[in-house]
Amino acid sequence: MKHYLLSLIIIPLIFFSSCSDTVTNIINNVTSNEVAAKDRLDSAIAQATRKYGPGTKLCLILGKNVKSNGKTDISALTYATNPDSIGAWLYVFRDPANSSLRVYTPNPLPTASDCLELTAFFSTNTLLNLIQDTSAKNIVAGVMELITTTNISLTTPTANLVNSNISIGYAYSTNPVIKFDSSYVPSSSSLNGNAFFSTGTNKTTNMMLIPAAGTLNLPAYISGLTGFPADMWIVNFKKTNSSNLTENLVLGTVVESNQNMTIPFLNLTSKVINISKYVSR
User: Fold this and answer.
1) CB-count exposure of residue 216 (10 Å: 0-12, 13-18, 19+)
2) Selection from 11, 69, 5 nearest residue 37 by Cα
């Protein structure tokens, strides 16, 4: 039945499309609805502001099952074949009337460009369960608590934010990465997403954009750290290792292309910092 309905959508689009469109492009547009984080952000902001007023603040963006190109696949076809593999972006706003959180996600219908409200289904516990690494989970749990109990919000102008594809590129390929140990002593690391995913199975990536300066407070602990951004992309690479155990690499990246984090006394500059402590590499 699902395939029959899908064919009813595809056939009229092929018939009425311009001659410059190829059949392949048309089918791809119908059966796949991949979006990067910022592709629907303006729509989500406009919809939330219309409903909850001009004081509505964006305080969090979350991405589940983000692909290597920084996009999530929200197509109905993906959901029908494998619900566990479906990806989605969640845009979390604070209602100025009562400080409660309001959540939007891209509309998954083919060719859609708007968002749907999912406030009733939002759960911070679900998000924390994505991260197994203990030290990173504790840090992110603290972030989530502040976001849900205070008026903190993202402050970087949305026009200045690098999109999810840029951030995931930073996390995947940047070398060196700033790391710190259990005493927050910083050093250089070669462990990025590419090195982490060079082995293992069941590889997934989740992302979140958080108000870092008011939540992580890392410069207060890491000696000499400068250039720490007001907001930060968190990229969680997760895999199953050869011992059938889950491993996580949780990296934070800058959110503007001209930003860099620096530890001058180490002569170390990077767009990426490892949020997990106790990292040996």
Assistant:
1) buried
2) 69
| Element (DSSP H or E) covering residue 131 | none
Per-residue pLDDT tens digits for 107-164 = 887 778 899 888 766 666 665 666 666 667 777 777 777 887 888 899 999 999 999 9
For 45, the 3-state DSSP assignment is helix
pTM over 0.85: no
Read off the pLDDT of residues 205-251 as tens digits, 9 standing for 90 and up: 999 999 987 788 889 999 999 999 999 999 999 999 999 988 889 99
- Nearby residues of 257 by Cβ (< 8 Å), 6 or more positions away: 162, 166
The tokens for 116 are 């749907």
**CB burial class (10 A; 0-12, 13-18, 19+) of residue 215?**
buried
- Nearest Cα residue to 78 out of 89, 70, 69, 87: 87
Q: Among 237, 226, 231, which Cα is nearest to 186's? A: 226
| Rounded to 5°, angle at Cα 246 from 74 and 162 | 45
237: tokens are: 């690479």
d(CA 44, CA 47): 5
**CB contact at 8 A, 140 and 131:** yes
* Sign, Cα dihedral of 62, 67, 68, 69: negative
The residue length of the chain stands at: 281
The beta strands (E) that lie in 43-173 are given as: 57-64, 71-73, 88-94, 101-106, 115-117
Please compute, for residue 45, the number of CA atoms within 13 A of its CA located in the half-sphere on the CB side: 17
In the chain, domain spans: 2-31, 36-274
